[in-house]
Design brief:
Shape: elongated
Radius of gyration: 14 Å
Helix content: 55-70%
Order of helices and strands: HHEEHH
């Protein structure tokens, strides 16, 4: 198997999950009064996202449709919040 093919995202649903999660992370860590992001928390969240197997061989290859992407995004945001609380 080609090395790049092994690590490609499974399909567009995973991209939607990443965009929903990223939108949530950025909006929760944006200070409107100073127009700055809390880079420390965002970096920690991105590190936690790397632990998920996004490859075409992973279990996410069975995820389908809008409802699947919304469910996974909600689950991912919840797990990131739990991880952030444990690290503080």
């Amino acid at each position: 198997m080609d090395r790049l093919q092994k690590y490609r995202l499974t399909h567009i649903v995973c991209l939607k999950v990443l965009s929903i999660t990223g939108n949530h992370i950025i909006s929760e860590n944006y200070n409107f009064s100073s127009n700055q992001l809390n880079i420390t928390v965002i970096s920690r969240s991105l590190t936690n996202i790397q632990s998920i197997d996004w490859s075409s061989e992973g279990s996410l290859k069975y995820l389908k449709g809008v409802s699947g992407s919304n469910f996974l995004a909600t689950d991912l945001v919840t797990s990131l919040k739990k991880t952030d609380k444990n690290l503080v």
